[in-house]
Amino acid sequence: MNLNAILSDIETVDPEAYERLNHAAGRTSRRNLFRLGTKAAAVAVPLAFGASLKTAYGQTSNAAAILEILNFALTLEYLEDSFYKAALAAPGLIPAGDRAVFQQISTHEERHVGFIENAIRTAGGTTVTRPRLDPTAKGAYPNVLSNYQTFLTVAQALEDTGVRAYKGQAANLISNDDVLQAALQIHSVEARHAAEVRRIRGQKPWATSTDNPAAIAAVYEGEGNVTQGGVNVSSLQVSGITLGASAAGDAFDEPLTRAQVLAIATPFIGA
Question: Pfam families in the record, alphabetically (predicted)?
Fold first, then answer.
């Protein structure tokens, strides 16, 4: 995360923002703020992020819409966070050679949760209630915490859902640069998670409309789209070779609407 860029943007809206952060941290200059430890910075940046949202949009109806999107993202992060915690706690599920990978992914998801929670609260909003995870998705994956291949399939589905969900909401966040930047920074990390899970599964590292189990087909709806910016990219030629539908579809990632995301995620929410 580029802390300097974020603070510069915040100061454009609220010139006294970083002074208040330094006061809270017992420091006197921006340079000293960057000498804070990782833990302190993890607290300071969400506060600044939320303060920017509150200052810029606190008196407009747009604030409610952005907070709603943040809570939507938080719900997905809650599910991912709970999913990896449950998997790491399941005896014998994750092989020793892959365990460090999923411990790190779990840590990332935990940080995403904390960041969004703090931003919502600092902006004067209320976070959604953390949903209870049903890792089996209402029985669709009954052995998800005992069969490693099933776990990997579900992990890939959740990560790619997150990637496409953030992409689907980007246009709705364009009115607030701080929120949009934070969403894109989380989005790219989720994409790396998905690529790593595919690597472990022996799959291509990018999303495709094929090579996916039928059980998670809804996650990849529309990934075969070959029209980008009004151009059929499958008909384009590179070095005299026509790209083709498969390569064209794989070269571009597609967004998911909120309704599509909720349809995928809802089964993972327990009663």
Answer: Ferritin_2
